[in-house]
Design brief:
alpha+beta, Beta-Lactamase, Arc Repressor Mutant, subunit A, 13% strand, disordered C terminus
Length: 327
């Protein structure tokens, strides 16, 4: 069944994607931080780390965050019983519920030493889309906080991070990132919408910084206070830079509701079923006797060709054209 991401989740992913694509290739810490902030905006993540595989049994940890604190980078050797081995061997997400956290608890606990009660780890793939180069691991002391939507979102974030770490990532690899969720490709957004999302997202981040500063003000010394204020200034400057660069981007023309010639006959048939009958991918597959995966690929192609972000916009694109339908 097709995964439909809530708007709050899509917003967090789009913001992370914008940040990743604007950072310098060597700013690994801030890249990881952008992914971590997005994950924390979706679910109550307490521990977050990025690991990159080196050799047969070594995991390099360039970014480790736990209990509100950024820890020192580290390396770790792993055996066959832990999450690190499982991720590379299976090339698939690990969830706490799979084994009641057994693999998660093999390694040393982070932060205050207490065991996590929920965890999700997802692989990072190289530009070929098959080779596992690393993993992103999230944990929480609270049970059952990471749902299916979080797993999908974290997997997407992990791949966006992998592409950003590989500065020479092929365009084909970048295209695969947006294939299932074209609405997350911020470069395809309409000019006014992109400006609005960027401004509001950044202002929300500034507000969160101020909330944190206000709650901790009495505990901070002068140096820490200057550091926090500097972080807020940096956020304000960053949104200014982003908006200035967007001014240079030409506004995307609205899709021509009568120009559907780019669609194949099959794509047009599927577009009609979505627009006229509000069918899901599974329903379309049953109607047309094709697999749900094939339907999903057609839907992604339709959105790309029409220059729209969501399948709901097909109603507008195909509006007033009921005469084209076959009885």
């Amino acid at each position: 069944m097709e995964t439909v991401l809530p708007e709050t989740v899509r917003g967090a992913l789009r913001l992370a994607d914008r940040q990743l694509r604007m950072l310098a290739p060597d700013d690994v810490s801030e890249m990881c931080a952008a992914v971590r902030r997005a994950a924390m905006a979706i679910a109550p993540v307490e521990t977050f780390y990025v690991g990159l595989y080196q050799g047969d049994n070594t995991l390099v940890l360039p970014y480790v965050y736990s209990d509100g604190e950024l820890l020192a980078a580290d390396t770790s050797r792993f055996g066959r019983d832990g999450v690190s081995y499982w991720i590379r061997a299976r090339a698939a997400p690990y969830r706490y519920a799979q084994d009641n956290g057994r693999r998660c608890h093999v390694g040393a606990p982070m932060g205050d030493g207490s065991l996590s009660r929920d965890a999700v780890a997802v692989p990072m793939f190289g530009p070929d889309g098959d080779t596992v180069i690393g993993m992103v691991n999230t944990q929480s002391p609270r049970a059952d906080v990471f749902d299916d939507t979080f797993v999908v979102a974290l997997a997407w974030l992990a791949q966006a991070l992998a592409l950003s770490l590989d500065d020479g990532a092929r365009s084909a690899a970048r295209e695969r990132l947006y294939r299932d969720f074209p609405e997350l490709d911020h470069s395809r957004l309409d000019f006014p919408v992109d400006m609005l999302h960027t401004a509001t997202d950044r202002l929300d981040e500034v507000a969160r910084c101020l909330d944190t500063l206000q709650s901790r003000a009495a505990l901070l010394d002068t140096a820490q206070l200057r550091q926090e204020l500097g972080r807020i200034k940096d956020q304000c400057r960053l949104v200014g830079t982003e908006l200035a660069m967007m001014v240079l981007k030409p506004a995307a023309p609205p899709p021509d509701r009568t120009d559907l010639g780019a669609l194949t006959a099959r794509e047009r048939e599927i577009a009609d079923l979505i627009a006229r009958e509000s069918m899901t991918n599974a329903m379309i597959g049953r109607r047309l006797f094709i697999s749900e995966k094939t339907v999903k690929a057609h839907v992604s192609s339709i959105l790309r060709k029409l220059g729209i972000r969501q399948r709901s916009e097909l109603v507008w694109c195909l509006g007033g054209r009921t005469a084209d339908r076959q009885p």
